[in-house]
Automatic annotation (TrEMBL), chain A:
The protein's name in its UniProt record: Peptidase M16
Pfam family, one: Peptidase_M16_C
InterPro entries cross-referenced by the UniProt entry: Metalloenz_LuxS/M16, MPP/UQCRC_Complex, Pept_M16_N, Peptidase_M16_C
Gene Ontology MF terms in the entry: metal ion binding
UniProtKB/TrEMBL annotation, chain B:
Domain Peptidase M16 C-terminal: 201-384
Pfam families associated with the record: Peptidase_M16, Peptidase_M16_C
The protein's name in its UniProt record: Peptidase M16
Keywords recorded for this protein, A-Z: Hydrolase, Metalloprotease, Protease, Signal
Signal sequence, start to end: 1-27
Length: 446, 456
C-alpha cells in the first residue's frame, strides 16, 4: 500500500480540490402555501409536478394515551380498521377499489396523535381521495374485521410474552411513568383487547376524528384551489370538536436504578435525564448540547469515547424525547457481557464533563452548522417526508415560516445558554436501567 | 458505519420491487424528470447520474463490486470489517476528518455491505458534491491502517454481531438456514462473518482485500439529486478520474450449487419464543442468472402468492380462515448468483403450526396445478409497475436501486426496461416458474419453536 501512496498523484489532486469545499447550508426551497377550504379546513401545501403523485398526511390530536382504562389498545386497533370497510363497501370491496385506484393508505397512532397518510397517482386522485373520505368519515367497524385484526394483535402480544427486550421496555416505561398512560403498551393486553366492542370503536372514532385539532399537509401534483375542495370533501362531514380525555403532564421519575437480569450476550444500558419542552426558550440550546453529547452520528462525545476509542459498542446515542405531556433526554447503548460497568462509568464521566463545563466554542459552532444544513436532508427528501414534516410543524405550532426562521434560532444560541442547558439537563441524577447477564456471571469479554 | 450487514440483501430486493421507470408511458408530468445518464471514466469507473431538482439535496454513492461472497475462505467478515476501516483516515486526511467535513455541512454519511457489493454514501447540499468526491476518491487508494485502529474496530464489529445476531433467535436461525440452503455457494456464510473467524481478522487481511478490490475499474459512482450529468462528469474526472486504473479483476465466478435432491429442516427452540413460526426456502434464479422472463415471473409469483393483504396467502389463511397471524412470500432477485424464494407463516397461538404449513403448501400446489388468473396477474403487474412511479419520489432510493443493479450484473437499461418486462409476463410463465422452482423435495424449512418444557 505504501508504494501506491508514494506514487499517487491522485492524492495531491484530491487534496487540492478539497480546498474548494463551500460550506453553504442547504436552503430549503420548499414553498409552503397555506390553504383554507371553503368550509374552513386548513392545510399546508407544497405544489410540485415533477413526479405525477400526491402525498397526503394528516394528524388528529389524541393518540394511544386516549385509551380508556380497561380498553387499552383500542386506538391502535382502530388504526388497523380504516381499510377494512367504509360506507357501503365491506372490507373486500374497499380493498379491491383501493388497489384499483393505485393508492396506498395507512393509519397509525403515536402516544399523542392518530396519523393518516395516502400516496396516490395524480391521475387517480379523485377515486383515491373518495376512499380516504369514506375511511375517515364512515368507517364500518364490521365485526369480522374487528375480530380478525384483534386476533392478529393478540397473537403479537402473546408472541412477545417471553421476549426479554419487550419486557425490558415495559419495565423501563413503568419505572419512568408509573401509572401514567405513557407507561401502557400501545397494543394493550389480551384482556383489554377482548373487552373492546364495535360500539366502543364508533364512540372513539367520533371523539377523536374532529376538525378542530386536525393538521393536514399535502405535497405534489395538486393546486391550492383543488385542494381546498378536496379538504371539504375529506373532512367536512366530521364533527367540529373532539372529545378528548385529559392526559396529565408527567415528569419521568429519575434518580432510580432498574436492574433486569437475563442471560444475553450483551448488557444494555439506558439512562434518562430531564428533558426540555418544544416551546421552552432553552429548547435550541438543549438540542445543540445534545447533538454534541450523543446525537451526532459519528462525531459525538459519547460515540468517540465509547465506540471509537474503546471499541465497547456498535451503537451509542443520546436523544431528546418530546411528547405532548413529558420530556426527557435518553442515552442508550449495549456492550458485551462483562463490560457493562465500565461502559456505564465512561458514559457518566462524559455526561459529568458536559454538565460541568458544557460544550466548547468550536463544538457549538460545528453543531450549529450541522443542524442548519441537516434540516433539508433529513426532513425534505421526498414528498412523503416533506408532508410529514409539515404536519409536525403544525402540531408544534411553529408557523409556516419556521423553516426560514429556524437557522436564526440556532445561530442565536450562545455558549452560556448551551452550558446552562447542559447543567440543567445533565446535572440531575438519572434513571439507569441495566439489562442483561448477571453481574456475577460477567467475565472479561472475549 | 456499516449498518446493513445482514438485512441489506432484503433491503435491496425491496428496492428492486420499487424499480424506477422512465418509460414514456409515465412521462406525462408537466416537468418530466431528466434522463438517467450513464458513462465511463477513462480509468474504467462507471458513472450513473439521476437528476432530480425538487430539493437542494444530492446523494453521492460509490459502490464496489465486492461483497462477502467474494471473501477468501476462512476470512468471513472481512468485506464488512473493511468497510468500517474505510472511515479511519488516509495519508491526506486524519481519522475523523471526513466525518467532520460531512457533519459541518449538515450532511449524512454511512456505508453498507452485502453479499455482492459494498457501498459508501453521503447525502449533502449540491455545492458540497465535489468535496465529497474528493474525499471518497482519496480513500479509494490512500487509506492508512494501523494495528491499533484494527484492534479497536474489530471489537466494534464483534459488538455489531452480538447486537444484530447473537442476542436474537430469529437471526441465529436465519444464519443456519442460509448455511443449509446453500451447500456450496458462499451465500451460505453470513455477511457479518462467523464470530470465530471475525476474531482473527487482521491488518494483513484488510490490506490484501483493499489492494485487490478498491480500484476505480471495480467501482460504480451513483449520484442522484439536484445536479446535472455534465457537472457530475466534470467533478468525477477531477477526482475519481485521477485515480490510477487497477489490474483487471477476474470474472466473479463463485462456486455454484450442486444439484439438490433433499428437503431439509432446521429447527431452533428458544425459551424466548411463545408462538412458533416456519419459513420454507427454495433456491431460485436471480435477475442475472435467470432465463429471460423467469425472474420477472418469480417477482409476480411472490406478489400474487404472498405480497401483501391482497395476496392468496393473506386472503386464504388470515381473512378467510384463522390459520395464521402472519404469512407472506418473498423473492430476492437482486443477486449476482442463484438466490432464494421464501414463504413463511406463524399461527395465532401456540398450536396450529403443522396445519398452517400444510395450508401454505396447498396454496403453492394450487398455483402449480391451476396457475393464476388473468385478473390477479394484472393487479399484481399494476402494483409492481406503479411502485416505480412512487419510487421516483425518493432520489436516494433510486440511487440504491441503480447501485444494487449495476453491482449484481445488470445494466441501466435492464432497470429501465423492467416494467415492460413485467408487463410481458404471462400467467403460464408464473405457473411454470412455480413448478420449476418450488419443489417440495428440494427445500429447506426452518422452524422457530418454544423451548421444550415452556409450553403454555
Amino acid at each position: 500500500m505504501r508504494n501506491r501512496l508514494a506514487s499517487s498523484a491522485a492524492a495531491a489532486a484530491a487534496l487540492a480540490f478539497l480546498m474548494l469545499i463551500v460550506s453553504l447550508p442547504a436552503q430549503a426551497e420548499v414553498r409552503i402555501q397555506q390553504v383554507r377550504s371553503p368550509g374552513g379546513i386548513t392545510a399546508w401545501l407544497v405544489e410540485d409536478y415533477t413526479v405525477p403523485i400526491v402525498a397526503l398526511r394528516f394528524a388528529f390530536a389524541g393518540g394511544v394515551s386516549q385509551d380508556p382504562p380497561g380498553k387499552e389498545g383500542i386506538v391502535n386497533l382502530m388504526t388497523g380498521l380504516f381499510d377494512e370497510g367504509a360506507g357501503d363497501l365491506d372490507s373486500d370491496a374497499f380493498q379491491t377499489r383501493l388497489d384499483d385506484a393505485g393508492a396506498e393508505m395507512s393509519f397509525r397512532a403515536s402516544r399523542d396523535n392518530v396519523y393518516g397518510s395516502m400516496r396516490m397517482l395524480a391521475d387517480q386522485r379523485n377515486e383515491a381521495l373518495e376512499l380516504m373520505r369514506l375511511a375517515v368519515t364512515a368507517p364500518r367497524f364490521d365485526q369480522a374485521p374487528i375480530d380478525r385484526i384483534r386476533s392478529q394483535i393478540a397473537a403479537g402480544i402473546r408472541a412477545q410474552e417471553r421476549d426479554p427486550e419487550v419486557e425490558a421496555g415495559r419495565r423501563w416505561l413503568a419505572a419512568l411513568y408509573g401509572d401514567h398512560p405513557y407507561a401502557r403498551p400501545d397494543e394493550g393486553t389480551a384482556q383489554s383487547l377482548a373487552a373492546i366492542t364495535a360500539d366502543d370503536l364508533r364512540v372513539l372514532h367520533k371523539a377523536l376524528f374532529a376538525r378542530e385539532q386536525l393538521e393536514v399537509a399535502v405535497v405534489g401534483a395538486i393546486d391550492a384551489k383543488s385542494l381546498g375542495a378536496e379538504l371539504d370533501r375529506l373532512f367536512g362531514a366530521l364533527p367540529e370538536k373532539p372529545a378528548l380525555r385529559p392526559v396529565p403532564d408527567i415528569a419521568p421519575k429519575l434518580a432510580q436504578r432498574i436492574d433486569y437480569e437475563y442471560a444475553l450476550p450483551q448488557t444494555r444500558l439506558r439512562l434518562a435525564y430531564p428533558g426540555v419542552a418544544r416551546n421552552d426558550p432553552e429548547f435550541f440550546p438543549a438540542v445543540l448540547m445534545n447533538h454534541i453529547l450523543g446525537d451526532g452520528t459519528f462525531t459525538s462525545r459519547l460515540f468517540r469515547e465509547v465506540r471509537e476509542k474503546r471499541g465497547l459498542t456498535y451503537g451509542i446515542s443520546s436523544s431528546l424525547v418530546n411528547y405532548e405531556h413529558a420530556n426527557a433526554l435518553v442515552i442508550g447503548t449495549s456492550t458485551r457481557a462483562g463490560k457493562g460497568g465500565e461502559t456505564l462509568g465512561i458514559i457518566q464521566d462524559v455526561v459529568k464533563g458536559m454538565a460541568e463545563d458544557g460544550p466548547t466554542e468550536a463544538e457549538l459552532a460545528d453543531a450549529k452548522k450541522y443542524l442548519i444544513g441537516a434540516y433539508a436532508i433529513n426532513n425534505l427528501n421526498s414528498s412523503g417526508s416533506i408532508a410529514s414534516t409539515l404536519v409536525e410543524l403544525q402540531l408544534d405550532e411553529l408557523g409556516a415560516d419556521y423553516i426560514d426562521r429556524r437557522a436564526d434560532y440556532i445561530n442565536a444560541v450562545t455558549l452560556d445558554q448551551a452550558r446552562a442547558a447542559a447543567r440543567r439537563l445533565l446535572g440531575a441524577e438519572p434513571a439507569i436501567m441495566r439489562f442483561g447477564p448477571a453481574e456475577a456471571e460477567e467475565k472479561e469479554g472475549n | 458505519m456499516s449498518l446493513a450487514a445482514q438485512p441489506v440483501r432484503h433491503l435491496a430486493t425491496a428496492l428492486l420491487l420499487l424499480l424506477l421507470s422512465l418509460a414514456p408511458a409515465f412521462a406525462e408530468a408537466p416537468r418530466p424528470q431528466e434522463r438517467v445518464e450513464n458513462f465511463l471514466l477513462g480509468n474504467g469507473m462507471e458513472v450513473v447520474v439521476i437528476p432530480d431538482h425538487r430539493a437542494p439535496i444530492v446523494t453521492h454513492m460509490v459502490w464496489y463490486k465486492v461483497g462477502s461472497a467474494d471473501e477468501p475462505p476462512g476470512k468471513s467478515g472481512i468485506a464488512h470489517f473493511f468497510e468500517h476501516l474505510m472511515f479511519k483516515g488516509t495519508t491526506n486526511h486524519k481519522p475523523g476528518e471526513f466525518d467532520a467535513a460531512v457533519a459541518e455541512i449538515g450532511g449524512d454519511q454511512n456505508a453498507f455491505t452485502s453479499y455482492d457489493y459494498t457501498a459508501y454514501f453521503q447525502t449533502v447540499a449540491p455545492d458540497a458534491l465535489g468535496g465529497m468526491m474528493g474525499l471518497e476518491a482519496d480513500r479509494m487508494r490512500n487509506l492508512t491502517l494501523t494495528d491499533d485502529v484494527i484492534a479497536t474496530e474489530r471489537d466494534v464489529v464483534l459488538e455489531e454481531r452480538r447486537s444484530r445476531i447473537e442476542g436474537d433467535p430469529q437471526s441465529l436461525l436465519s444464519e443456519e438456514v442460509q448455511a443449509t440452503l446453500f451447500q456450496n455457494h458462499p451465500y451460505r456464510v453470513p455477511v457479518i462473518g462467523w464470530m470465530h473467524e471475525m476474531e482473527q481478522l487482521n491488518r494483513e487481511d484488510a490490506v490484501a482485500f483493499y489492494d485487490r478490490y478498491y480500484t476505480p475499474n471495480n467501482a460504480v459512482l451513483v449520484v442522484a439529486g439536484d445536479v446535472d450529468a455534465a457537472t457530475v462528469k466534470r467533478l468525477a474526472e477531477e477526482t475519481y478520474g485521477k485515480v490510477a486504473r487497477g489490474p483487471d479483476l477476474p470474472p466473479r465466478l463463485r462456486p455454484i450449487e450442486p444439484e439438490q435432491n433433499t428437503s431439509r429442516t432446521v429447527t431452533m427452540a428458544d425459551p424466548r419464543v411463545t408462538i412458533p413460526g416456519f419459513a420454507k426456502y427454495w433456491l431460485a434464479p436471480s435477475y442475472r442468472t435467470a432465463e429471460p422472463g423467469e425472474a420477472e415471473a418469480m417477482d409476480l409469483l411472490s406478489e400474487i402468492l404472498g405480497g401483501g393483504t391482497r395476496s392468496r396467502l393473506y386472503q386464504q389463511l388470515i381473512v378467510k380462515s384463522d390459520l395464521a397471524a402472519g404469512t407472506g412470500a418473498f423473492y430476492d432477485g437482486t443477486a449476482l448468483d442463484e438466490t432464494s424464494f421464501v414463504v413463511h407463516g406463524s399461527p395465532r397461538g401456540p398450536d396450529g403450526l403443522a396445519k398452517l404449513e400444510a395450508a401454505v403448501d396447498a396454496e403453492i400446489v394450487r398455483i402449480q396445478r391451476d396457475g393464476v388468473s388473468a385478473d390477479e396477474l394484472d393487479r399484481a403487474k399494476n402494483r409492481l409497475v406503479r411502485s416505480m412511479i412512487f419510487a421516483r419520489d425518493n432520489p436516494a432510493g433510486m440511487a440504491n436501486m441503480y447501485g444494487a443493479a449495476l453491482t449484481t450484473g445488470n445494466t441501466v437499461e435492464d432497470v429501465q426496461q423492467w416494467p415492460a418486462r413485467i408487463e410481458a409476463v404471462t400467467a403460464e410463465q408464473v405457473k411454470a416458474a412455480a413448478l420449476k422452482y418450488l419443489k417440495p423435495d428440494q427445500s429447506v424449512t426452518a422452524y422457530l419453536l418454544p423451548a421444550a418444557g415452556t409450553s403454555n
